[in-house]
Amino acid sequence: MAESEVNEASKNPKKPQKPLIRVVIYIISHSSLFSLICCIAGIVAFLLLPILAKNTYISENALMPGSANPMFSGHETIEANQLVKEIMSINPKIVAAGIEIPRLLAQHMERTGAEVYCHKFHAQMNQFHPLQFFSASPYTLKMQENSSCGSHGINSVGIIRAPRGDGKEAIVLVTPYNSSKIDLSEALSLGLAYSIFSLLSRVNWLAKDFVWLAADSRYGEYNSVAAWLKDYHTPVFVGLKEFDTDTCAESSYPHDWKEHSTTARSIPDVFGRAGTIAAALVFKVVDRQETTDKDTLNIYSEASNGQMPNLDLINIVHYLAVHKQGLHVKVEKFYLLLNSAWLRIVGEIFELIGKVAKNLNPQWKFGIPAADYIEGTATLASSVYYQALGIPTGSHGAFRDYQVDAITLEISPRVSLNNEARRPEFLLRGGRLIEGVIRSVNNLLEKFHQSFFLYLMTSSGKFVSVGVYMIGFALLVSPLPVAAAALYSGLRTSDSSLNTNKHKANPSSTEAYGTVLKSWRWLHAAKVVFVVHLWGVLVSLVPCLIIQLPERTPTSSMLAWVSLSILSLVTLYGILGSPYSYIISPQYQRREWEILKAVMIAVASIGLGLMSIINYATAQIGAVLMVPMCLLAVPLRHISRSGMSRAVLLTIFNLVVAFLSFPPVTMLLIKGFSEGFDSVSVGDFWIWAQSLWTWNSATYLYLILIHLPCWALCIHILLHPC
Amino acid sequence: MEKIRWFWVWVIASLIFRLVFIYFPNDFILGSRAEIATPLTSLRRLAEGYWLKQSSMSPYAGSMYHGSPLLLSLLGPLTVLGTNGQPSYLLCSLLFVVADFVTAVLIRETGWKLQMAYSDRLKSLNLDKVLESSDILPAGDIASLIYLWNPLTIVTCLGLSTSPIENLMVVLSLYGACSGLAPLTAFGWVTASHLSLYPSLLVIPVIFLLGYGPESPPRKLYLQKTASSNGNNPVLGDHFFSWRPVIYFLLWATIWSSYFLFLCSISLKQYGGLPEMFKRTYGFILTVEDLSPNIGVLWYFFAEVFEFFRDFFLIVIHLNILFMILPLAIRLNHRPCFLAFVYIAIFSMLKSYPSSGDPALYLALVGLFVNELADMKFSFFLFCGYVGVALLSPVMHNLWIWRGTGNANFYFATAMGYACLQIILVVDSVSAMLQHDRMLQKLSRAQS
User: Fold this and answer.
1) ipTM for the complex shown
2) Which family does it belong to (chain B) (predicted)?
3) Which domains does chain A have, with CATH numbers?
4) Pairing assessment for the beta strands A296-300 and A152-160 based on DSSP bridges
5) Which of A80, A602, A689, B200 could form a disulfide with A484 if both were Cys (CB 3.0 to 4.6 A apart)?
6) For residue A424, what pLDDT band results from cuts at 50, 70 and 90?
7) Taking CB atoms and an 8 Å limit, are B403 and A526 in contact across chains?
8) In this complex, do B133 and A509 lie within 8 Å of one another by their Cβ atoms?
């Protein structure tokens, strides 16, 4: 918008202008300084996030966590222990071990008087569907019907109908276990879940139905939960259902059920449902020896595409675990960063600034100790990383696709699980925690909406909300539109000066028509940008062909991908014309790359803006790489005309930035730094990309449709024959 | 004025492109998007209305269908005509492709007519230097290619909404008016108004087109010319308003509209007749009954406004369109086709159920004035804005409806951004056009 105003201003400088326009003109005329300041401010703002983090608080009053005394008592722990013993006594050698546990669980559930059924599902193969993110609704997912009958798992599901509810809402508790090879920790989580289930079947305060899903994770935890959720949310028509069961004949069904229990006969066929799911907890016990003197609770919450559950859910878990059960709560962090020297320096600088500020005015309290800062940054980095990856960190991710808030609770005791004397105490803690959370969610009147959905965690009790981290992102990205406007307006003013010169030289020629479509000259550059983005679309679809190839290794697939991409770029140029082929009068050629850069930067800023809405973390990491690359890009030949030292510096800068922001290089470098360079190979990028598209991550789309074309365009500009 | 090379190749390529996508089973993914199919134009609703009518109920029962009963009789049978093994609604899709093609051809012809007339008039003013001094682009070809390759047009065509037919009728009336065919003009205008009401405002540019003929430089120039050459210049003769074609047009419009009303009343005889139709179609448009989200701004406004003030704001918002009509008609009366473009852009901004079919039409009409609008200031900004909004809108919708992390304000923000873009487009193009006129005046003054 502003470019025209600059033009206007140059035409009639005497005309008084509005202050806003003057500010815009000022910014555009000092765009390089502005860009530099904004970029640095953006990065500093990002580093400041751990300091700006706020303590979490429970926003929804209805939750009232911990207001009631827990009913979970020693009696329940005995029940849990009994089930654990029964499960562990099943001989894993016998063939029917996979069926034995669901049967046992169903028997126990029935004993509490709940509704019980078994949900049989097929293991789904990973497919290539990168664009599924935009087809948007999980309800349109199509089940692959051709999976063989052999590979199926059995989830056991129990439903307690709420004595005080209308059956319109439900709370889900998921305990994943491996039915073919169960170990003590999984058995403990099953036992604990069962004892809670039996407790809840007796309480009178339950207002939402309670569903216990013992998920058979033989084919992956996520798959089993996702399959159950899909069936829960898709209505099954009778005809189809019969057809489905017919295809997999009774052979795979647990026949012996009929012998064991006569009542269980009708169970497996009926898929029971409760109401809409208000919240879900995935609960696991792990036997991980921690060095703390308390039992530890790990919270995992990232779902696909950086979606998070409502912060209130994490808050109640955190509140109950810390203040009621005395657990040590942790969220994931990068341990690598804890020892990093430069982070310590940054932390100490911030601490120093905080102290100085406090000396100046005792009311300014924004400094935090360097150790806290490092801790916060490590957690923040892992939070950003897992959100950016777009891959759920556990089976709770399956719930988020149906707008259900869910988290995974991983509880680990301070002493070994085999220590039977310590077990009841541990079970009591875990049981009371889960009972408390369920009771809290049970109080909820509406679905979670009060607290944040968009946030980053810097520790289990601290968070950075969207309003804070977006400022840093906006600062980082704002140079892009300004630079585009500056380049474009510079172009227009040079045009008009050219015109006036020409006009003076040749007064007979008509004014203004000297250049046809002078304001539409960006169209050619737009075409180049469009072709390169079209190429991006082709590149994103190439893996679809490659996965059909037999006998491929990751490295060979990667090489095939690269070579096919280059081939398609050459073909596209053959069909639609190469970017350098456009013949224009020499007076404009000088400016051709600038207009290309302006269009590229504009498109990049649109892309980054879009991505920041879809997945902030990806956009933030992308912006850190892309903004310097876009702003620096200048044709190498153009650089060589300027002074020697400057030229060398700029060339080196350009080449380094262009090299670093090529997606495979970035990924391999990060991997190399975190895991050592010995294990890195070219095929790793293929494996990584594969994991992205099998999880429908929008990060894949961003990388190939926005980042890669921008990188290619920057290379174009670097090599431009200006 | 050379033609674009390989014009027909591009046209055929665009048609093949559409056909390829039609054969992909998309299961209404596009057709159920709020940006593409509105309650008025959705083919799904039309099929529902047809089904209701087949089972001898009023097609308007249950507030499902709100279109014309004639469209129901024409397209309805196509929706149920199943071809074995093919995706359903295949025939309708093919019909929309044909409609797009015809629209493009008509736009091209209109462009040619406009350009010929314009260059004739400039010659008569001795301003033909303007044409020679630079290469003039074939506006008609450009405009029709813009129409065919505009992603919005393609998406509208594939998304099974009836907008391609409405656009065809609008373009048909403009084409008829440019070539002076009163019956055709009247047919296009009456059908377009019947289908979506708003094109009825185009009666003003159409009358100007028929009365004054297509685009010309400002009429003041002729007066100057006559004054300076102080004689009976033949130039002036054909620039008075000629009433004859206009009266023909009005006559034909009356005939066509009474014929259409007659057909409608026959088809709705058992279901309440014409009053029911007026209430369910035009009433539905004017009272903004359906508040489901779309790319316009009215749904949000009327979802928020108190019931008590609803009528008041309905009047205010519809008057908003009418307010702008008269000044624009006075200022731009020498360029009736451009006036039509401005009207279309304005009512697609303020209409109650806008869809992606509206920008598809007016962006193609911009192409008709590519030579005159060479000086548009915000072209690059507008381009980026349209690209950004077109991509942002589905993302915001996804965030609000499917992921539940956003809310209605997110989606409405893009709708506001889109409305602002349209305002900038109108303001910028009108000012560029006036600038062009001023330049012509300066030139002619320099000559005399």
Assistant:
1) 0.87
2) Belongs to the PIGU family.
3) 1-58+469-520 (no CATH), 61-125+144-332+393-443 (3.40.630.10), 524-722 (no CATH)
4) unpaired
5) A602
6) confident
7) no
8) yes
